[in-house]
Amino acid sequence: MENITLVDDLEVKRSFVDARYLAKKYGVTGRYILMMAAEKRIPCLRLGRKCVRFRENEVAKALEGSAAAP
């Protein structure tokens, strides 16, 4: 059985973030983040009608890919 350290546990807890966190990180509004998710420009996990969460690393990859595309 694999031992999980406190750092690993923190990474798991932090793997899903909300639109407000991403908005602050990228200097945009939360509404813009949600719009990008609705347009499927960034991946998200919908947990009901209003609750939307994002994996920070997947969003970063998606944004890098869209920046490279013309």
CATH architecture descriptor text = Orthogonal Bundle
Reading side by side through the largest sheet, how are the strands ordered? 1-3-2
Q: Count up the helices.
A: 4
Biggest beta sheet attributes: 3 strands, antiparallel
Helicity, as a percent range: 55-70%
Structural class: mainly alpha
Number of domains: 1
Average predicted local confidence, pLDDT: 83
Strand content: 5-15%
* DSSP strand count: 3
Low-pLDDT ranges:
none
Radius of gyration of CA atoms, rounded to a whole number? 14 Å
- The shape, in one word, is globular
Q: What is the first-to-last residue Cα distance? A: 47 Å
Key structural traits:
70 residues, mainly alpha, Arc Repressor Mutant, subunit A, three-stranded antiparallel β-sheet
